[in-house]
Design brief:
- The complex is a heterodimer of chains A (259) and B (382).
- Chain A is of the alpha/beta class and 259 residues long.
- Chain A has helices at residues 37-53, 68-78, 96-110, 129-137, 192-198, 241-255, and strands spanning 2-7, 9-11, 33-35, 57-63, 82-86, 114-118, 141-150, 156-163, 166-173, 176-180, 203-206.
- Chain A contains six helices and eleven strands.
- In chain A, helix 2 (68-78) packs across helix 5 (192-198) and helix 3 packs across helix 4 (129-137).
- Chain A is globular and about 70 Å long.
- Chain A starts with a strand and ends with a helix.
- Chain B is α+β, with helices and mostly antiparallel strands.
- Chain B has three domains: 7-120, Acyl-CoA dehydrogenase/oxidase, N-terminal domain (Butyryl-Coa Dehydrogenase, subunit A, domain 1, Orthogonal Bundle); 122-232, Butyryl-CoA Dehydrogenase, subunit A, domain 2 (Beta Barrel); 234-378, Butyryl-CoA Dehydrogenase, subunit A, domain 3, CATH 1.20.140.10.
- Chain B is built from ten helices and ten strands.
- In chain B, strands 1-4-5-8 form a four-stranded mixed sheet. In chain B, strands 2-3-7-6 form a four-stranded antiparallel sheet, with helices on one face.
- Classes of the chains: A alpha/beta (259), B alpha+beta (382).
- Chain A binds chain B through residues 70, 73-74, 77, 189-193, 195-196, 198-199, and chain B through 7-8, 11-12, 14-15, 18-19, 47-50, 53, 57, 62-64.
- The structure holds flavin-adenine dinucleotide.
- The site of flavin-adenine dinucleotide has 21 residues of chain B, from strand 1, strand 3 and helix 10.
């Protein structure tokens, strides 16, 4: 079974994000880039499906600038068989729909039976690509999946997601798109062998024209990034316990209107 | 001169860092307190291909270069110095000499399982009367047909209790002094080979340090590494290389203590401001950052020389000496930055301080490193 995993390269979770000079993008100086954690669940799940079936191919795909190759190489080190890098100046300002269309075009060429993504990328937390991608493809989609199993003949996938107080279980005919939620699995560390072998695996560069796509202006354009106002300092209520509690209750009710 | 890591070295560094932070850091304190060998995490290091990092794949290792080994050891030592030494002893003091001096049959039997991390190896040179003066070997091996009969006592063997096989140095011809030293691979379970005790230690308490007793222990001649009388040369060549790993351990210990100090200096307040705003704290942090960077570069340089096939004995001794002294100084200051809390077990720098001390002692004390460096500097005159 061929499985395609769409991943995004995002700033490390420990990054202190600063708004860049133009006010429309973040300042990327000094940022460490990683594979978005939810996408790592997707990669891990794809590898497990392949390992369980004893055969198959896992292809990692990423749309992003030159540096995104590092993210793809991490996926190869984890065990993906090959990678496709959608890298073209035409995609510099790509919004989620442009990204979904580019991914759909690759998927039409590659014809995987299963597409896995993370439930959202942890940089802008938009979470739209999976849905848009399935829509463009006309494929069924199950999002925020915590459990998954492909049936023996590779025709259907059973997927479960957490809902308030329980699990919701679906059957989807393949091909289908699934997005991974935390809890789906515990991603492996790349082994030394995987890391050393990654450079021998193919990362194919693909341009928009290779997919028959033209340059389309994004339909979503960023107007401004605004920093949150700094948090006002906390307040310590002084005095003996009885008075302090009274004052706390009053402040919560009258000032914060929290109770 | 290239001062950046390759993509591959960076990926190894990232993997080692993530593993150390997620899997080792949470257990390090308990292992130290209970003086317990970390079987579970060492097994996982083996599965990741870390226990025989620089050994070729053909012999069960990962085929990584010395720089990769160094960056990985630094990451482990930033969380737990014991894991760092368990790994470097297996990789550099046990696997590497078998790779370099062993026959294919010996590599198959003694190297491959340890390079895969399925078993652990150790290196047993030190004796009660042979520490810095390592050539003064008293353990005797007397040839008897296809066997050597081994008698004597070895001490301070890292991984000694846990190892399946020991690389043991002994005398086969006392009259020849250092040219009479021979290296034997001795399996645990060989009659006459016992481990009477392990040490209770100040630091690296999750790593076992064992005593070996050999009483008429019969070792097949086929287990001899290299030729009779070649043992001391094997020991010196092995130590020169593995010293870079101990330097890396020192860099890692220092870095771990430093990072914790920076975090503490930001959060702890005294006289109304974070202590990091007091100039004397800043001074300590600046000294830490600078000496650590120096030690790191010396260590990476020694490893890079080794990878390039250049002479590296002096570079390795400089790195080991400077990194060990740096680890001791930085961990001392790290406790100072933490004040009274640093002296307790709460902030871990106390463990780093205890762990740092050994880097000045094993694989050649700081004094012995200076001797080696001076000898290299003065050439034949010293
Ligand atoms: C925890 C631990 C783990 C160890 N692991 C191993 C291991 O795996 N395998 C192994 O074989 N050994 C191991 N050792 C032994 C270690 O390498 C020796 O302890 C070390 O080489 C010093 O030898 P020594 O203890 O006999 O000290 P000594 O040689 O007695 O030295 C005592 C002091 O005298 C100084 N000194 C000695 N000679 C000179 C000189 N010529 N000039 C100036 N100063 C000098 C030393 O620097 C030191 O300060 C380990 C030791 C410890 C504590």
């Amino acid at each position: 079974m061929k499985i395609l995993v769409a991943i995004k390269q995002v700033p490390d979770t420990a990054t202190q994000v600063k708004i860049g000079a133009g006010g429309k993008a973040i300042d990327t100086a000094g940022i460490t880039w990683i594979v978005s954690p939810y996408d790592e669940f997707a990669v891990e799940e794809a590898l497990r499906v392949k390992e369980k079936r004893g055969q198959g191919e896992v292809v990692a795909v990423c749309l992003g600038p030159d540096r995104a190759k590092e993210a793809l190489r991490s996926c190869l080190a984890m065990g993906c068989d090959r990678a496709i890098h959608l890298n073209d100046p035409a995609w510099t300002a790509a919004d989620t729909l442009t990204t979904a269309r580019a991914l759909a075009a690759v998927i039409k060429q590659e014809q995987p039976q299963l597409v896995l993504c993370g439930r959202q990328a942890i940089d802008d937390d938009m979470g739209a690509v999976t849905a848009q991608l399935s829509e463009v493809l006309g494929w069924p989609c199950a999002a925020w999946i915590m459990e998954e199993s492909v049936d023996a003949d590779g025709k259907n996938v059973r997927a479960a997601r957490q809902v308030e107080g329980g699990l919701e279980v679906f059957d989807l005919p393949l091909p289908a798109v699934i997005s991974a939620q935390k809890g789906l699995n515990e991603p492996r560390y790349p082994t030394l062998k995987g890391i050393m072998g990654a450079k021998k695996k193919e990362i194919k560069d693909v341009k928009a024209s290779d997919l028959g796509l033209g340059a389309e202006p994004p339909q979503l354009s960023v107007v401004a990034l605004e920093a949150l106002p700094p948090r006002p300092p906390g307040r310590v209520i002084q005095g003996d316990v009885a008075t302090a509690v009274k004052e706390l209750v009053r402040a919560l009710r009258e000032e914060a209107k929290a109770i | 001169m290239r001062l950046t890591l390759t993509d591959e070295q960076q990926m190894i560094q990232t993997m080692a860092r993530e593993f150390a932070e997620s899997e080792i850091k949470p257990v390090a304190e308990e292992l130290d307190r209970e003086e317990r060998f970390p079987h579970e995490t060492v097994k996982r290091l083996g599965e990741l291909g870390m226990m025989g990092m620089t050994i070729p794949e053909r012999w069960g290792g990962s085929g990584a270069d010395a720089v990769s080994l160094i960056v990985a050891i630094i990451e482990l030592a930033k969380q737990c110095a014991s894991h760092a030494v368990i790994l470097t002893v297996n990789n550099s003091l046990y696997c590497e000499p078998i790779l370099t001096f062993g026959t294919d049959a010996q590599r198959e039997r003694f190297l491959t399982p340890c390079a895969r991390g399925e078993k652990i190896g150790c290196f047993s040179l030190t004796e009660p009367q042979a520490g810095s003066d390592a050539a003064n070997q008293q353990t005797m091996a007397v040839r008897d047909g296809d066997h050597y009969v081994l008698n004597g006592r070895k001490i301070f063997v890292t991984n000694g209790r846990e190892a399946s096989t020991a690389l043991v140095f002994c005398q086969t011809d006392r009259a020849k002094g250092r040219n009479g030293v021979t290296a034997l691979l001795v399996d645990k379970g060989t009659p006459g080979f016992s481990v009477p005790r392990t040490e209770e230690k100040l630091g690296i308490r999750a790593s076992d340090t064992a005593e070996f007793l050999f009483e008429d222990c019969r070792v097949p001649v086929a287990n001899r590494l290299g030729e009779e009388g070649q043992g001391f040369k094997i020991a010196l060549a092995t130590l020169a290389s593995s010293r870079i790993g101990i330097a890396a351990q020192g860099v890692g210990i220092a870095t771990g203590a430093y990072e914790r100090s920076v975090a503490y200096a930001r959060e702890r307040k005294a006289f109304g401001v974070p202590i990091g705003q007091h100039q004397m704290i800043q001074w300590m942090l600046a000294d830490m950052a600078t000496t650590i960077e120096g030690a790191r570069l010396l260590t990476l340089r020694a490893a890079a020389l080794k990878d390039a096939g250049q002479p590296y004995v002096k570079a390795a001794s400089m790195a080991k000496y400077f990194a060990a002294e740096t680890a001791m100084k930085v961990t001392t200051d790290a406790i100072q930055v933490h004040g009274g809390y640093g002296y307790t077990r709460e902030y871990q720098v106390e463990r780093f301080f205890r762990d740092a001390k050994i880097t000045q002692i094993y694989e050649g004390t700081s004094q012995i490193q200076k001797l080696v460096i001076a000898r290299e500097v003065l050439g034949g005159d010293a």
